[in-house]
Amino acid sequence: MSEYIKTTFLIMSDSHGHQLLSGPVTGHIDVAIHCGDLTNESKIEEFQKTLQYLQELKADLKLVIGGNHDFTMDVPAFKKLVANAKQTLEPELVRKTYGDYGEIRNILSANAAAANIIFLDEGSYEFRLRNGALLRVYASPFTPSLSGDWGFQYHLNEGHHFEIPETVDVVITHGPPKGILDYTDGRRAGCPNLFQAIARAQPLLHCFGHIHECWGGKLVTWRSNMPSNSMPSHITHIDNSKSTVLSNISRLEAARQTSDLACFSVDFDVTRSGSQTLFVNAALQGTSEITQVPWVVNVPLPRV
């Protein structure tokens, strides 16, 4: 009996209330992942539309986290936004458009279970998949921000502690780690705390979105025998000579010249796991509209 089971993931992010797929995905999907920004303005109708898309998606398990645009899922942030509005908001109008505090979570919970959709808060989870594999996940919707005006955000100067266990297989976050698929407006917008946590845990797969213009994938090879108390960096902990960019927006556009792509596919070789992490930025929305595609990734997971 094989020690590992090939498990197929469909990964997307930043759909902002739009259709998730532009065409059919061939083959069986074991786990679908949405890395947040289900909506654009966190309105009830946007959540309902995305929930319908997720319900129609054919996958054994669907894992979803919130993003900064999904601020009504973050009740403290929602209350802060209403209280700090430049003009006093009519409570009835707020309820009609966005729901009461906590209502969105209740709506999602009530309609998700029947379609195998699970909304994840920050933390670690284990799932026994229908294909016989064990999936260990760490999830976090939090992203850094200098203003903190949206949901699930923390000030960059204060940082955030990501408690990623070393046994994890897949990390799902809304934002990227600093230095990997995070370049925007002439700077690196990823979180340094997240990079350090990922470098220590070295999961098989880390998927995210948030930075639309950095859609793509990168296979990172970690250096071995690093001291456990050393501070991870891109120079000391990554073997850049053995790390590879698998795709980016320019390559996606080039591939579209010859074929219609509904998704971008990649296999992760089990013989190299343990020293490599596959990073995927799966943002569907480009600079202004949905122009990018989800990823289909085959990952070997341990048999239960």
UniProtKB/TrEMBL annotation:
Q: Name one GO molecular function term.
A: hydrolase activity
**Segments forming domain Calcineurin-like phosphoesterase:** 9-214
Matching InterPro entries, A to Z?
Answer: Calcineurin-like_PHP, Metallo-depent_PP-like, UPF0046_metallophosphoest
Q: Which Gene3D superfamilies match?
A: 3.60.21.10
State the protein's name: Calcineurin-like phosphoesterase domain-containing protein
User: Organism, per UniProt?
Assistant: Talaromyces amestolkiae
